[in-house]
Amino acid sequence: MSPEEFRSLGHDLVDRVADFLAELPQRRVTSGESPEMIRSLLGAETNLPEEGEDPATLLASATELLLEHSLFNGHPRFFGYVTASPAPIGMLGDFVASAVNPNVGGWALSPVATEIEAQAVRWIAELIGYPATCGGLFVSGGNMANFVGYIAARVARLGPGVRTEGVAAATAPQVYASSETHTWIQKATDLFGPGTDAIRWIDTDADQRMDVDHLRRAITEDRGAGRLPMMVVANAGTVSTGAIDPLRELAGICRAEGVWLHVDGAYGGFAASLPDPHPDLAAIAEADSVAVDPHKWLYAPLEAGCALVRDPEALRNAFSYHPPYYHFGTEAINYYDLGPQNSRGFRALKVWLALRQVGRAGYRQMIADDIRLSERLFECLRAHPEIEAVTQSLSITTFRYVPPPLRSRLGDPEVEAYLDGLNERLLDALQRSGDAFVSNAVVGGRYLLRACIVNFRTDTGDVEALPEIVARYGREAAGGAAGAASGG
Predict the structure, then answer these.
(1) How many CB atoms are located within 10 Å of the residue 362 CB?
(2) Where are the alpha helices (H) located in 29-87, listed in sequence order?
(3) Element containing residue 356 per DSSP (H, E)
(4) Pairing verdict, β 305-309 and 135-139
(5) pTM over 0.90
(6) To which H or E segment does residue 233 belong?
(7) Is 202:214 a contact under the CB 8 Å cutoff?
(8) Average pLDDT of the chain?
(9) Could you tell me the sign of the dihedral formed by the alpha carbons of 424, 426, 427, 433, in that order?
(10) What fold, for 102-345?
(11) Are 291 and 305 in contact (CB under 8 A)?
(12) What is the pLDDT of residue 330?
């Protein structure tokens, strides 16, 4: 492809994407098409082409497929998952990063990119109040960021011998997590440790926060049984409801017991940047390691996770097989010594650009706006006669559709079973509708709908419209089920 052809195709593509961004609020959130329909559009069963195709035709076709047959997490009425609306400057950053294509594994392969990543890591730490002297690196997302914290804890608490002898030589290392913890912890203990039986599941209170008394008892029991308490996983914003564990108390327990404290702040950690954050979020600064996801509340395009570790040497101890490398008399950063990857893309650029574009004040404003919109949504849901609003924390609200005749019978096992099935059908209808997109959560044994806002495009009108959208599809899902709704 010649430079002239690249320029022409690139200009056309940027124009099309700019039009798409302008039109996005008026579009459906999703095409709602079945897997069979999408495969048919793609010609999924065709063989690999023998001959090449014209780049202009290919780009036009691919753009049409993506812009007409996707779920748009940048849509202002996308409330489904903790996936943010992507910042335009991040899109352009990915374009530049792909053009230069640095391998940010070794400094010699990526001098400027490596130093940009180091600066972006430090700025993220500063943003959430974590020590800026920490170590850290960008990874693909929350799972990998949490994995990095787990592996650092494993070596720090079990000793360097675990890297040669494996966990089988260790004394039954135990990991403590609440039942609200994301499934990354099962994957981590499965892939890197003694298996999922090493997880001690700690009870939660009525607000889905870890029960510190149960944690203390579990640690005492394990020590008495000859097991080694290794790591406590605390949540700074659970995926289901946005619950925040009592981080300050947990930090005190971990200090007293010599246990590594890891905070999964993939979603909620960035709310620590607010001028008046939740009191426990300030205790993120006391953690041994923290996972955050810039592709959540920093609005970076996927992928962008970030692992922070208080002691930078803990990363080298966990991952490196090389002595420190000096270049021009200064120790160079080689990220292959600080994390699981050797070849690494330049994920940091899009985050670094956005941090510079809007600054600390801009992110504080946008995160506060998302929380305010979630609180407004909770008020609107609670005021609707056909909806039961259940929880609201950070920018997550949970609720369910309840036909008015059943209001007086909530708690009846037969009615609860009916409502679970009704809201499951309602969720399917909503997700296919294109009018709005929500997800689900199970809280206190109840099947609920869940709306999460991490979107700078969402406004008050979007959240105020959601209750009636839910009610409309709820009535359709209930259909002629008046008899079932009344217990018949």
Answers:
(1) 13
(2) 35-42, 55-68
(3) helix 348-383
(4) antiparallel
(5) yes
(6) strand 228-235
(7) yes
(8) 94
(9) positive
(10) Aspartate Aminotransferase; domain 2 (3.40.640)
(11) yes
(12) 84
